[in-house]
Design brief:
The chain is α+β, with helices and mostly antiparallel strands. The protein contains 9 helices and 12 strands. The chain folds into 2 domains: 139 residues, Nuclear Transport Factor 2, Chain: A (Roll), CATH 3.10.450; 132 residues, Roll (Nuclear Transport Factor 2, Chain: A). This is Nuclear transport factor 2 family protein.
């Protein structure tokens, strides 16, 4: 067994827990193979599933939005190497602190990860988790896929600039109403309007970033009622053509069904952006 390969495999497995706890979903996507087999049958029931790495990350993002923080302690690795593939068995203790109070959900067990060599490193192609014990409150599937979890995941991704990943949370036929403008007054805002489907939504984001450079964006408040979510967002940026700064606060309303956003609408006073674009 090559010692360097063994250490690289162990580090890849450790990074799996680290990226999840830090919510570094871009790095997690790079760590996974193009397709990954997820087997959590011993924990949740159901069936093992082979999905794209991006789909796996999208699912975890939604689930992890139900927790204020998590910590995965992974150790006692046992590695088996065979050419360009590897298997790593490791023990894990995972603590999940609910986002809205209550005792943490703590479980211990072990991972079995299968990895494939990719260039100078290793990528994870399969994850099996087998629990040995658990304490605290186990979140239900309804909580994990709740309106709040989906909305929080949406705002986390958009505020981090991960727009393509955020689009994974949109329904296939999402109705997107980005401010209702007045002809002749808002023509300098090429991104506003009503769009349908994730591709059109992404195109509207590209239209926005082509003229505006966002320097700061944060969610200031999130209110949820049934399948409806309302977020208050604060944003600072600069108009690319003029170099003039703008600062706005706007409201996004989301309708969520089955963990996907099926309708989105924004409300704002765009005067600051219009001034920056026309200065």
């Amino acid at each position: 067994m090559n010692a360097t390969d063994r250490l690289d495999v162990i580090e890849a497995c450790d990074r799996f827990g680290w990226y999840a706890d830090r919510r570094d979903w871009a790095a997690m996507t790079d760590l996974l193979a193009d397709e990954v087999c997820l087997d959590y049958r011993a924990l949740h029931g159901g069936d093992a599933a082979t999905v794209t790495g991006a789909a796996a990350v999208a699912g975890w993002t939604t689930e992890f939005a139900a927790f204020r923080t998590t910590q995965h302690l992974i150790g006692n690795h046992v590695v088996a190497l065979e050419g360009d593939t590897a298997t790593c068995d490791a023990q894990v203790q995972a603590t999940h602190v609910p986002a809205h109070g209550g005792p943490p959900w703590v479980l211990g067990g072990h991972y079995r990860m299968r990895l494939r060599r990719a260039g100078a490193g290793w990528r994870i192609a399969a994850v099996t988790f087998t629990p040995d014990w658990q304490t605290g409150v186990v979140p239900s599937a309804g909580e994990a896929g709740s309106t709040r979890a989906t909305a929080q995941a949406w705002f986390d991704r958009v505020c981090d600039g991960a727009v393509a990943e955020a689009a994974d949370l949109l329904g296939d036929d999402v109705e997107w109403v980005n401010f209702v403008g007045v002809p002749g007054h808002h023509d300098c805002m090429p991104w506003i309007g009503t769009y349908h489907g994730p591709a059109a939504v992404l195109a509207s984001f590209e239209a926005f970033t082509s003229v505006c450079d966002v320097r700061h964006k944060e969610l200031r408040r999130l209110v949820v009622d049934g399948d409806q979510a309302v977020g208050v967002v604060h944003e600072k940026g600069v108009a690319r053509g003029t170099g003039v700064a703008f600062e706005i606060e706007y409201v996004e309303t989301l309708t969520v069904r089955d963990g996907r956003i099926v309708r989105w609408k924004s409300y704002t006073d765009p005067c600051s952006i219009i001034r920056a674009l026309r200065f």
